[in-house]
């Protein structure tokens, strides 16, 4: 067996035959299997079993009665069941076109990668199949936030939110995965530095049925993100908080020395901006310094950003107060929170961005895959 295709399904009955037909047509005489990990309440399992009887290639089904970890958990169970070392994960609704699989295999066969991600956001790809403008905006914004939280591990990946990827199971620490919600690829990439290859793909329309994405899934994703990345962001917040206090103390001291409050505020801000930069260098982004070029460049970017931020924040605040009639303290709080997020994104993605080639040179650790033990009923065909 050269390839195990893992398809998580939740009520995808009408898509099963079409999916298998197109996979079979595309992969022809390659040696592969398809594993459905199913939590459906419709006739999906019956359809899979019926299709398996007629299929020229192995089609297997794991039907779970109680879905605990949802989509992400289903994918992990699929890894445990897979007969092949290389596993391809794809949706069961044909939004991930099977015709793209050969290009993904070619990229993997070219070597030097642990994972090949089919990306909507690499040049040549697109996300037109996303339901509407809201989904597109949410997808773009969450991709940006996610990449800023894992700037190094995700530096080679333009689409960490995709569910279409080909991975060397032995490069993944299966036991460490704690899937929650939809975004299993993100967790795989966040837990361990993998060597990432990308191929662009065009996200298609659903063949039949409805999306299971929901507001709840969005909240799960944010929780997962916070859990995976509590480290850097919270350290960044601590440094920012300490800076704010230092800023006020310095300003107070200067006023006591006889300075007017405006120059006192300016001096206090500049001193804090410099102090913050040093703390970011030595605490928050210490592990990324070596790869992100010269310290003077980083300083200029950080210093410019923080000064611009101060200049922009005040007028925005006054627009909120005068224009939108928001109480001034609330407006100040809102702009501070927004500024914090933007500042974090900017530092993680721009100031400390790894220079080209720096990360791909890092080698990934390898450990043997854990043996399969799922304890649940599997029906092999
Ligand atoms: N086993 C199992 N259990 N499968 C599930 C569950 C679950 O609880 N929930 C959803 N699935 C399956 C669906 O049946 C489908 O095959 C696949 O997971 C993706 O679900 P969709 O309902 O089609 O979600 P989507 O199209 O909104 O999201 C897809 O696109 C995202 C990119 O925007 C998924 O591929 C995401 O992984 C991807 O990130
Ligand atoms: Mn879908």
Task: Provide keyphrases for this structure.
Spore Coat Polysaccharide Biosynthesis Protein SpsA, Chain A; 11 helices; 381 residues; 10% strand; alpha/beta; eight-stranded mixed sheet
In brief:
The chain has 381 residues and is of the alpha/beta class.
Secondary-structure blueprint:
Layout: E1 3-9, H1 16-27, E2 32-38, H2 44-54, E3 59-63, H3 70-81, E4 86-89, H4 101-109, E5 115-119, H5 133-149, E6 165-168, H6 184-191, E7 196-200, H7 215-228, H8 230-256, H9 261-284, H10 295-323, H11 328-351, E8 378-380
Parallel strand pairs: 1-2, 1-4, 2-3, 5-7
Antiparallel strand pairs: 3-8, 4-6, 5-6
Helix pairs in contact: 5-11, 8-9, 9-10, 10-11
The protein binds guanosine-5'-diphosphate-alpha-D-mannose and manganese (II) ion (MN).
Notes on the protein architecture:
- The chain has 381 residues and is α/β, with parallel strands linked by helices.
- The protein folds into two domains: 3-213, Spore Coat Polysaccharide Biosynthesis Protein SpsA, Chain A, CATH 3.90.550.10; 229-364, no CATH class.
- It is 49% helix and 10% strand.
- Strands 7-5-6-4-1-2-3-8 form an eight-stranded mixed sheet.
- The site of manganese (II) ion has 5 residues, from loops.
- The site of guanosine-5'-diphosphate-alpha-D-mannose (GDD) has 23 residues, from strand 1, strand 2 and helix 3.
